[in-house]
Structures are given as structure tokens and as C-alpha cells.
């Protein structure tokens, strides 16, 4: 589980966390998730593989949060396809769900071409992700 | 149509516009859209009505963009429900679609309660939105 | 000491942390500093006092940092004037100073008027700040 | 003169433009300034020269601004040194100055080494900047 402490600069004039920032918190939690399962995202990049976001889906803003709140973020793998995998996120503020959302990712090689998830270059990634399917 | 000129600070170390910023560009285009149809969003707020984002859906990152690019953003109404309406966005960089996405919104009154779209307080809004259904 | 783990979305296409984000890290460290000395900034606001930034000065970008880096941020009070106080920040990445900067703040009451630092309403704040003059 | 239309996501819970964003508006105005004097910043980068911010100084937040406001930003060259040049910015909201600030920049070559402003590689830049000294 990843924790994000909501900052003053992440709020807007409505007095709450701006909706775009949850997309950033998803990224924070994702980087931490990869780190925890032994897949350092930045190491990954050094090997010439990048993993761009290709989709953001089903984001539901259930309750507002604001500066000073602590968001507990759970990450899991929702699905693994042939070229993309989907991650899901649940964010809670003191046990109350404030946000749920999903991100979809593909893998690109040095040549900018899509690397299928069955490719041996990413076999260890795919194998690890499968263990975290929700 | 709304134009966003991509800024340096909106890119990330992958060299492209960070995916979270498109959610912000959607907001920029939405505010402009409301203004153009005679619904100044900030005036709206002064009347005690707020329109929070309750969902972000079906965002597809089709092509990267980067600092210096000009994004042309088309906005339309996808659907009007009983308590929420959904807006859709198509962003193009020199006629090539780079991003499509949707945002869902509800209306809240001064008491923080949901205002149904059939409510007379928002009749002019609902009526206007109906003209822009895609 | 406050720690900030640099996020991917905080970098730019130059591959490093965008310079504007250090101003945000200053705020993060400042909020934590106030909390640590028993002055919860958000509680402070509930009492009707706000403390806007009136100046950002002497920011020196000495070394770049990037996503994955951990910044250790030291905060101290540089000076206390009649209506403003100045805070100073030193940010290190593995013991190497990457950034130093200063922020200047005043206090505003519910009426939007400046509250002098000698005012009894803010006596506990001024007293506490004096202990942390560098 | 450059115009920035303040966005909702650029405000904070105090109801005003977050102070860190003015640093970003400075960058926007700077990029436009370079473009206008025939020095396309992004072209500049393609030639292997980068111009990082080495200092942010004397930023004064004189009046708040908020979403919906239009900021008119004037840019000028304050000083040209041997290795850095300093730019100054005045931002107005309907003719009222809301912010003034300065940024200091150096030039780095492909090797990451500082390029003196007297270097022939940057002669055209230095020459042009001199015309805009305030």
C-alpha cells in the first residue's frame, strides 16, 4: 500500500484535491508497486524499455479529499492482454473510498515499436504481474 | 474549438506531454466551451452551484505530443442523464488525433446536495447542453 | 527534515525535475515544519488566519535531480520582520546540495487585513518561529 | 506581451492562483519572448544547446489572481553577465500589477559544460538579448 499526503498545491478553489491530481497519485502508487515487486521502473527505462500510459479508464470520484488528508492507495493488476496490461487503484481516506480508477499500459522498445507481453525481453515482468491479478 | 499550446513544464522525462495534463486540457476546453455557449463557469459558481467531475473515462492516448505543439480540442456533449452529463473531447495535433477522452459531471447546490438536471435552477444549462449532443 | 521522493510527473523533457516544482517542495517542507513545531497549518486556517506567500527569493538551482531521487529538505527561519517572516530551505540529494531558496510570508486575518507579527493573535506563532532562526 | 488565461487547476483552496504557477507563467512568457525575437527555444534545443534556469529571484506576489483572470505578461532582459543572463517579468491583471519576478539562465553545450555568453556558438543569442535590456 502506498500513501500520499495531499498537498496544498494539489487543491483547487473548490477547496478540494483537483481531479487531475488523482491521475498523478495513480502514477506514484504504480512506481512504488513496481519497486516493491522488484521491478524498478527507472532501471527498466535504462534497459531501453518504456511503458507509456495508453489509457485512463473508469475513474470515479466518490468523495472529495483535501490538503492534509492522507490517501492510502491499493494497486492491483486488473488484466493482462497481448500487448497491454491494466492496473486498478483504490484510494481511501481514513478507510473511506474517495477514488477508484484504472490505467492501461503497453511496452515500447528502443525502436519505438510495441513489445508484446509474451516477448522474452519482458517475460519476467509479465510473470510478476500475473501474480498480482486482482 | 479550443487551442492549447503545450508548455515545457507539461512534458516529462520521456520527452512528451505527461498523460495527466490531458485531463487538465480537457478542463481548459470545457471552461471555454461553457463560455462560448453563454454559460460562464465562474458566474455559475457565484450563484452557488458547482459542477464537480465525478468521472474520467475512456481516455485514449493515441499519439504523443510535446512542448511547442498546438493541440486543437473539440468538445461535445456525449450524454445527459438524470443527475450527470458526459462530455467528450478530441485533441488533434496538426490534424492527427493524439487523444480522446470523456468527463462526467454532476451539479451540487449550496447545501452540497445533488441538483437533478431536470431541476428548474439548471433548466437553462440542461437545455443548452442538449443542443451540443454529438 | 522533510523528504520528497521525486515523481515522474515532476520531471520535464530535459530529463530533470522542473524548476517550478522546487517551489512546491518548499511548501511541502514548510507545512511539515509547522506541523512539527506544533503549528498545524490547516488548523491555523480554520481559525481564520491565512499566511500567503508574498515573496520567493534567492532560489539557486545548483544540481539537477530527477525521478527516483530522494530530496532531503532542511527548513529554518531566516528572519522575522514586523509584518513578514522569511523561511529558508536547503535541499540535498544524497548529501549533495541541489537547491537553496527562500520564501517570505505575511499573515492575513478574516478581514483580509495584514496581521502584524507582534499582534497577540499570532503571539504563539511568532514566539515559536524565533526559536528556529538560523 | 504574452497572455495567460488562469485555469481552474491553477488555483488552490485559498481561492487564488497558487504561487508556484507564476514561475510556470514566467516560462510560458519566456518561450514566447524567444519565439518573437526569432529564437525558437525548441529549435535551439535541437542544436544541442540547453538553457537551464539557475536562479529564480525577487518574486513579489502583489495581488492575488484567480481562475478566469487574464494575465498580461511583459518580459525584458535585466542583465547579461559572462555566463548567465537575467530576465524580468511583470504580470498585470486588468492593468494592476499582480506579480513581478526574475529568472536567471545559463547555456550548456552537448557536453554539459557551460557555454560563455561571449562564445561564437551563441553570438546571435547574446546580440539579440542585448536589444531587449530594460
Largest interface: A-B, 21 and 21 residues
Structural class of chain A: alpha+beta
Quick one: CATH class of chain A? Answer: Alpha Beta
Task: Supply the CATH superfamily name of chain A.
Answer: Hotdog Thioesterase
Give Rg of chain A in angstroms: 16 Å
CATH topology of chain A: Thiol Ester Dehydrase, Chain A
Backbone shape of chain A:
elongated
Question: What order do the strands of the largest sheet of chain A run in, or round the barrel if closed?
Answer: 1-3-4-5-2
Please describe the biggest sheet of chain A, giving its number of strands, its sense, and whether it closes into a barrel.
5 strands, antiparallel
Share of helical residues of chain A: 10-25%
Number of strands of chain A: 5
Strand-residue fraction of chain A?
25-35%
Counting DSSP H or I runs of 4 or more residues, the number of helices of chain A is 3
Summed over residues and divided by their number, the pLDDT of chain A gives a mean of: 93
Please tell me the CATH architecture of chain A by its name.
Roll
Amino acid at each position: 500500500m502506498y500513501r500520499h499526503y495531499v498537498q496544498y498545491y494539489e487543491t483547487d478553489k473548490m477547496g478540494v484535491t483537483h481531479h487531475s491530481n488523482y491521475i498523478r497519485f495513480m502514477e506514484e502508487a504504480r512506481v512504488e508497486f513496481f519497486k516493491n515487486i522488484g521491478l524498478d521502473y527507472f532501471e527498466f527505462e535504462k534497459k531501453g524499455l518504456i511503458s507509456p500510459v495508453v489509457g485512463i479508464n473508469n475513474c470515479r470520484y466518490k468523495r472529495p479529499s483535501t490538503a492534509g488528508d492522507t490517501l492510502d492507495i491499493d494497486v492491483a493488476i486488473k488484466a493482462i492482454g497481448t500487448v497491454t496490461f491494466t492496473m486498478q487503484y483504490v484510494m481511501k481516506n481514513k478507510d473511506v473510498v474517495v477514488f477508484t480508477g484504472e490505467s492501461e499500459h503497453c511496452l515500447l522498445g528502443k525502436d519505438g515499436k510495441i513489445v508484446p507481453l509474451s516477448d522474452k525481453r519482458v517475460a519476467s515482468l509479465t510473470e510478476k504481474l500475473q501474480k498480482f491479478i486482482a
